[in-house]
Amino acid sequence: MTSKTGDKNRKAIQKQIFIILSLLLIFFLVGCEHLNRSEAKGPEKDHIKVSEHWYSQDSSKISIGITNIKNHVSSTGTTSIDKNKQKILNVIDEFKKYKVNMILFPEFSLTGYFWEDTPACWNYMREGLTNNQLEWLAEVKSKLDDDLNFIIFNNIRLNPDKPDGKFLNSTFVIHKDFDVAKLTSKKNEQAYIYDKTFLPGIEKIFTTSGKDDSLVLDTKWGRFGFTTCYDMSFAQIYQEYATFDQVDAIIQLASWRGTSTREYSAMNVKSDHYYGFIWDLMASSQSAFNQVWIFASNAVGKQKRGDYEFWGGSGVWAPSGMNLVQGPHVSEELIVMHHIDIKGQTKFEHDDFHYYKDFIEIYNPIIDKRAHTRTRGKQ
Fold it and tell me: Most buried by CB count within 10 Å: which residue of 246, 263, 329, 377?
């Protein structure tokens, strides 16, 4: 190779390096400018992705908005409660653009989850009690309209029987007839509030089980039952809803964690997200065993207080047990499912195999006890 050829190659390489460095500098400057603009706009940083799905084109069927979102908990103080309140209002406004009829929010929508620093947690949760948020609750109710008939969210409230004791973990069905001014009125208690039945671990420190283990909501689209988080681990409550209440669907609100390890080393099987596996498994199983829809809204993301990682995975399970749509396990998302034929799909499953009809050929229902017993003498 001549020296002239070598010089030419070196110059070509230097030119290529110069071009690459120039492009990198341009990308860096554009990126900085975009970041500055995003920070200046502020609210765009909290924008949540919306995924839109159509079960059918029949607009007479229900459209549901399901939130797969993070419940904020401030490291100190109670500023996160106000942040959660505003976030809920913003999410409702976003869902209204899609003309949904019902919106679901996760468990502990206003406060986030309990943690082990007991005195601090008690003080924080008392600030977040639904009883202290009636003006905000009235604003939530004001967002109902001809399309949006129900807003369903969960938070703690005072136990009217023990106002100085443990809280109730309550799911509120905000409807035009819900009485905001009288949160614990008999009408609200009977028709629009479900108190969590089964309480895991730390929740037993702060809350007590509800007096009734069911709430049934009749709508023109179908009949709904309600459960909260850990309730999904117990087959009995779902069986009662399906058999005695004959619901078409169950609404499950949760702050269900994902991380827990199960390992079977000899089989080379391990999961670091066992609780998440259980969420997916149980949602599918409970819907299939009981031939009911499950509409589930679960918290997602990390909570520093308590060091929790919530699983997300909010979604829709058909009475077949098949998952139709599911949110992510690491990020926020708003799920819109249009025109769900709740009654029609339930009927389809029953026409194929109606498990309960076959069940009561062997087991007699005891209506007043919401239980069954083996029928003697039948084959």
Answer: 329
Q: Does 89 have pLDDT greater than 90?
A: yes
Residue of 228, 335, 225, 327 whose CA lies nearest to 280: 327
* Token duo for residue 225: 């039952």
- Per-residue pLDDT at 23 exceeds 80: no
CA angle 54, 58, 61 (to 5 degrees): 85
Question: How much is the pTM?
Answer: 0.86
Q: Please enumerate in sequence order all residues whose Cβ is within 8 A of that of 69, keeping only pairs 6 or more positions apart, or say none.
A: 48, 87, 91, 105, 106, 299, 300, 332, 333, 334
Q: Which of 160, 172, 162 lies closest to 110, judged by CA?
A: 172
Q: Which two structure tokens, joined as six digits, stand for 155?
A: 């938070």
What's the CA gap between 178 and 171, in Å, rounded? 13
State the average pLDDT over residues 347-370. Answer: 93
- For residues 369 and 121, give the distance between their C-alpha atoms in angstroms, rounded to a whole number: 38
